[in-house]
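Researcher: Next entry in the queue.
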Amino acid sequence: MARRPEANARLDDAARAGWLYYVAGRTQDEIAGQMGISRQSAQRLVSLAMAERLIKVRLDHPIAACMELGLRLKERYDLRQAEVVPSDPTSSSTTVGIAEAGAAEIERWLKSSDPIIMAIGTGRTLKAAIDQLPAMDCPQHRIVSLTGNIGVDGSAAYYNVIFSMADAVKARHFPMPLPVIVSSAEEREVLHKQILVQSALSLGTQANIAFVGVGEVGTDAPLCQDGFLSRDEMAQLVEQGAAGEICGWMFDGHGQLIAGDINNRVASVPLPSRETSTLIGMAKGRRKHLALRAALRGGLINGVITDEDTAEYLLAP
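Model: Structure for this entry, 317 residues:
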């Protein structure tokens, strides 16, 4: 790879230092240690990021290494879009960085003057992204939930996104008034015949753009923690080769939906076709590696927002 011009390299370093300081919340001493420079150099880089207007609310400078990783991901998995944000090895957060990038991408779509249908999944990462959105007035758009917004006890699901989004974005919203997973295939059939549910099902299949989280499997996975699946059910899925889930839909290591009882009970909207929709998966971290790679391999998603470390894993032979 050609050597970067010195000026560009310094701006890249300033952008990285600015991201660590303003987004990841690192001190200048921590930045110096992580980047292998003096504290004075770290301070100058953070100041340069501000002087060059690289930092607003979100990082506004594309770091060359991240851009290259994104391009390689697009080529490897035939993606419409791939965005890679810097990794912070000292942070345990599963949302920092990708939440801000996700919010920027959601905002970009919502600024369209042409009417669109935007579909939204659920989960911690998406909720963190929605919390970053500014107030927007978008009466021309329709926003639909791909998955149920009701908890197992009948309350609103804590990590539902559609209601949080309704507070920020003035557009028509269509929730999915069901649990993620119901008790039987017969119950799902009955519930899907309800007029309110049919509106969401119809809009979901027509979505121009969709944003979803990519969930891991295991007894510590969100579907178990939130009470939608028992530990025994999850263990059975793992034995069947489950590698991850999107909106409750379980898939194997090749990104193929797993046939059987659990997926027959998923009440979510079927994932939009990658032929007609842009479907962006947002995830990072070791716990998401297998699930995200499987989703990309199987073409369940055709866009991704992730971090450097995860991108390197996805590009490994």
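Model: Residues 6-22 form the longest helix (17 residues).
Researcher: Noted, moving on.
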